[in-house]
Amino acid sequence: MRRSSRDHATLRAGLEAWLAGRLPAGAEPRIEGLEGTASNGMSSETVLFDAAWAEPDGPRRERLVARLAPDAADVPVFPSYDLGRQFEVIRLVGAHTSVPVPPVWWCEPDPAPVGAPFFVMGRVDGRVPPDVMPYSFGDNWLHDADAADQRRLQDATVDVIADLHGFADPEGRCGFLAGDAPGATPLRRRVAQTRAWYEFAAADGFRSPLVERTFAWLDDHWPAEEAETVLCWGDSRIGNVLYQGFEPAAVLDWEMACLGPRDLDLAWLIYAHRIFDDLAGQLGLPGMPHFLRAADVAARYEAATGHALRDLRFFGTYAAVQYAIVFLRTGARSVHFGEAEMPATVDELIMNGPQLDAMLAGRYWDQE
């Protein structure tokens, strides 16, 4: 699935010139081996490269990663990309929690050097459960692991989320995540922000009756009481973690980080697996129905924090509608790049449409 129209040779030259301006005179930096990622991620563009330069005590070489905002012409998933905010979240999480994150190096808000804002972080070795093709389809390291190792990875990932939610004074330290969407509570503001994201995605003929019905359902089923506010990862799925063995080595992709109730991250973790397992079932594949089950995730999290998962039906459906918006944008991108034809109805772009419809009818979340 194509993500970008950027030319890597031009990008490499721009990064090299920019790095020369960042390092002391005489460093003479060189960038080698620049390549994109292929198996995960559909939003920001990520490139891997080696950088070498001279220092007073000898040559230095670093393995680095650049995270770039997408070009507006490439049908980006989100209406805007605040790379500085992502950089600061990673820095704060690394400084104030035990959550493993990559070391951050530089943040460049000026699009002039390479055509888009970007930040640079250190590269961490590890392996990621693939998105393309989804790990639940089989023939990959996680699917083929034994049940004990799969459970080890599952529990370790829940523990990472529990550690993150212990971040002290999130509203004080991370007030920049509050956003400017209307609403009296962090959850109200978060959902309002998602509505605005949908309006962006729906422009130019992509309005979805299913998504609009789901927002109405959320309004009608709002939690009677909202839990305390924590720092949320936002995109809390195993496809955004680098694992060494079956233990998390680096937590990635913080562009959806927010302030909100714990349930946002827990429901996203559960549904991010369920959506892949649902797709496996539609293709007649066995999938991984024993993995990341809601009851198991909730029990592990409660044992670690003392807090229970409060309302999976609401938060899981909210997670699902966000995925639906992603599918609207990635579907539009595929049409843009000529990889797919526009279907007869917009809702046909939404790969989790049947499941989302079942949620609204009350026929989904009680199934395990």
Describe this structure in words.
With 368 residues, this protein is α+β, with helices and mostly antiparallel strands. The chain folds into two domains: 8-122, Phosphorylase Kinase, domain 1 (2-Layer Sandwich), CATH 3.30.200.20; 135-360, Aminoglycoside 3'-phosphotransferase, Chain: A, domain 2 (Alpha-Beta Complex), CATH 3.90.1200.10. The chain has helices at residues 8-22, 83-96, 147-165, 170-173, 186-201, 209-220, 263-282, 294-305, 312-336, 353-360; strands at residues 30-36, 45-55, 58-68, 104-108, 118-122, 230-232, 241-244, 247-251, 258-260. A five-stranded antiparallel sheet has the order 1-2-3-5-4, with helices on both faces. A two-stranded antiparallel sheet has the order 6-9. Helix 3 (147-165) crosses helix 8. The radius of gyration is 21 Å and the shape is globular. The two termini are 31 Å apart. The mean pLDDT is 93.
Name the quaternary structure: single chain
Q: Which series of helices and strands comes N to C?
A: HEEEHEEHHHHEEEEHHHH
Biggest pleated sheet: 5 strands, antiparallel
Tell me the radius of gyration.
Answer: 21 Å
At the fourth level of CATH, the homologous superfamily of the largest domain is Aminoglycoside phosphotransferase (APH), C-terminal lobe
Whole-number mean pLDDT: 93
Q: So, CATH architecture of the largest domain?
A: Alpha-Beta Complex
> Can you tell me the residue ranges where pLDDT is under 50 for at least 5 consecutive residues?
none
- The global form is globular
Compute the number of structural domains. 2
CATH class of the largest domain: Alpha Beta
Name the beta content range: 5-15%
CATH topology of the largest domain: Aminoglycoside 3'-phosphotransferase, Chain: A, domain 2
Distance, first to last CA: 31 Å
Summed up, the helix count is: 10
Number of strands: 9
